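Ticket reopened. Same input as before:
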Amino acid sequence: MTAISYYISNTKNEVIKLKKTFAFWLTIISAVIFPLLLFIVYLVKHEKLIPGPGENPWEEFMFKQIKNTIPFLIPMFIVLITSLIIQVEHKSHGIKHLFSLPIPKWSVYFGKLSIVIISIVTTYIYFFLAIVLFGHLLGVFYSDLGFLDIQPDYWRSAKMLGMSFVASLGIVGIQFWMSFRFKNFIVPLSIGMTMVIMGLVVSRAPESIYFPYSYNVLSISYGAQVPLTFGISSITVYSLFCFVVTCIFGYLDVKRLNVK
Amino acid sequence: MNQLIVDTKNLNFSYTKTRKDIENLELKVPKGSIYGFLGPNGSGKSTTIRLLLGLLRKQSGSVALFGELFNSKTRLKSLDKVGALIENPSLYEHLNAVDNLKIAANYRQNIPKGRIDEVLEIVKLSHAKKKKVKAYSLGMKQRLGLAISLLSNPELIILDEPTNGLDPKGIIEMRALIKELNEKYGTTVFISSHLLSEIEKTCTHVGIIRNGKMLFQDTVKALKSSKGKKMMVDIEVDKFIDAMTVLEKLQKENTSLVDEFLQIEVEDKEEITGVIDALRAHHVKVYQVSIKNNLEELFLSLTEN
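Engineering reply: fixed in the latest deploy. New output:
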C-alpha cells in the first residue's frame, strides 16, 4: 500500500464512522441555526426591516450576519467538532485497535484531522448557502425587502469566510492534539471553550495577534487593522504557523504515546 | 513446530518508576500452538500483549514476531499477519456489524468482499449483522471483536481475556471456535486468561505470569505431570467417623476432613472404586465422589505467595 492509499482508506473510514453521529448533525445545525433565526426575525418583523432607497439588503442580512456570528460560532464549533469526532474513537476504545493494525500511525492522525477540516469547510459552505437561500426566500415572500432586486457580493463574502477559515486553523491544530491526547472529552472541551471566550474578550488588545483563539474575530472584525507579515495579514501567517507546529508536535507526541 | 511465532527476550516495562510491571520476560510461543497466558488480575498479561503489539514502548529487551525483530521498520509487515482482540473489543456502537467489519477491512489490504459474510458466519452473527452494535449483548460484542481479528486470515491471533463476561454457553462456543481455527487453519492462538480451567481445556502450551515475571512456561502436558501422579479425591458420606475408620483400615494416609468432605489421596482412578466398595461394605452411604483439580492447586501455589 502506498502512502496515498493509506491516507485515502483512513479518510474513507472516518466518513463511515461519522454516520448517524451527533458530530455529523452538528455540522449542519451549526451552519443553519443563525441564518434560520435571522430568517425568522425577518419574516416576523419584515415591515421594520425594509431597506431604504439605494440600500443593499444583503449588507445587513449577509455581511453583518457573518461579522456577528462567525467569530463566536466557528471557534465554538471547532472545539465541539474536534472533541466529538475523536470521542467516537475514544468511546469505542478505538485508538489501541487502530495502532495495532498494519497501518502507519500518521495515516490515523492525519486521516482524522482531515475529516475535522472537511467538517469545518462543510459548515462554512452550508452557512454561506443557508444565507443565500434564506435571503432569496425572503425576497420571494416579501418583495419589498429587495433581496431579489440586488445580487449579493458573493466574492466578498467568500473571501471573508475564507480568511476566517485560515485564521481558525491554529486552534484546529491545538484542539485536535488535545482531543487525541485526553480520553475524557471534558478536558479539551472545557479548555477550548474557556479559550474561545478569552479570545473574544482580549481581541481588542494589540497583543491578541499572538493568541490563536482571537484570530477568527480579528480576521472578521479587525481585518484591515492587523499588521502584515511577509505582505500578508499577520494572523493568517501566525495561524498557519500554529497549525503546522501543533500538527507536527501533536503527531510526534501521539506516535510515542503509550496506549493503555 | 519449533519455530517461534512470538519470542521475547529480557522484556522490561514499568508504568511508574517505583515498580516494575514486566520484568525480564521471556515469552516463547511456538508456531501452531494454542498458548495460554495465565495469571491473576493485574499480573501484567495485558501489558505484555500491548508490548507485543507495540502499543507500549518497552524499556529494554526485544520482541520478535514471526522470527523478525519487531521495530518501526518491521511493524507494518508483522502486524499484517496478526489479528488482535485486546480487552474490550474496539467497536463503533452506533454502527452495525457490517459497517464495523467494513471499516476494519478498509484498513487492511486486499480483503475480499465476501470475507465479511464469512467471518460473520464463523462467529455466528449473520442473523444480527444489520443490528446496531449498541443493541448487542456482551457475548455478541466479544464475538464481533473476534470476527474483526479474523478478517485478514491472520497467522497469529492474540486474544486478551476472550471469555470475559461471556455466559457458559458463550464460553463453550468461544473455546470450540479457537480450537477450530487452530486445527482447521493452523492459526497460532495466544490467549490470556486468569482462569486456569479455561487454559487447561483449550491450550497446548501455557505460560504462568505473576507480578510481571514468568513463573512457568511449557506444554500443558508438562504442567500436569509436574505435579506428580497422585490425585486428590473429595468424598461426601453420611458417617464421617465410620468412614475414617474404613479408610484407616485401607491404610490411607493423608486423609482429612475439609468442608464436610473427606479428602484422600489416591494413585489412580482404579483405587477410587476400591475405596467406594469398602465404604459401602461398611454401610457408609456415599453421596458423591469428585477428583480435585490438581492444576488449580498448582496454579494457586505458583501465583500466591
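The mean pLDDT of chain B is 87. The first helix of chain B runs from residue 45 to 52. Please confirm and we'll close it.
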